[in-house]
Design brief:
The protein has 2 domains: 1-31; 45-147, no CATH class. The chain contains 5 helices and no strands. By secondary structure, the protein is mainly alpha-helical. The protein is flat and about 70 Å long.
């Protein structure tokens, strides 16, 4: 019984500083990010992408013509509404859809490729600077499409 109490006390003492450090790190990396110089710079880049979208009447300035941050402002500023809709259609067609009816290896490949592609899209939404989907996303989309039998 005494050993259990000592173990519980030791664990509580060990975890307490860890939770404090974790909370402080979360505060610094996530909650304070918008006020940092980097956050302000990324916000300015994102706004320039939206501004370019408006100034080009929704058609975009063309690939490589702007510097922006985040997938949505990058796509809208570079390829406009038509290109953004086509990119969304590509991502939806390749990564969405049901895995019902698939079994074994095909199902595992589809689900794995879908998760890999969604992870890449999430990273692009947060910090993408070009409308290029990248080799990894295209590979995941191809694997998901083949596994689902759409090719």
């Amino acid at each position: 019984m005494l050993a259990l109490a000592v173990a519980a006390t030791s664990l509580a003492l060990a975890v307490t500083p860890l939770l404090s450090v974790m909370a402080e790190t979360f505060q610094d990396l996530v909650l304070s990010k918008p006020q940092s110089l980097s956050g302000l710079e990324r916000k300015a880049w994102a706004l320039s992408g939206f501004r370019t979208f408006v100034e080009t009447f929704g058609l975009g300035a063309g690939l490589g013509s702007i510097r922006s941050n985040g997938l949505v402002p990058v796509l809208l500023g570079s390829v406009g509404l038509p290109g953004t809709l086509l990119f969304a259609g590509f991502a939806w067609t390749a990564l969405a859809g049901s895995a019902r009816g698939l079994s074994g290896l095909r199902r595992r490949v589809l689900l794995s490729a879908r998760l890999g592609g969604l992870a890449q899209l999430a990273a692009m939404f947060l910090s993408g600077t070009t409308p290029d989907p990248g080799l990894f996303l295209v590979t995941m989309a191809a694997m998901a499409s083949v596994a689902a039998g759409r090719v």
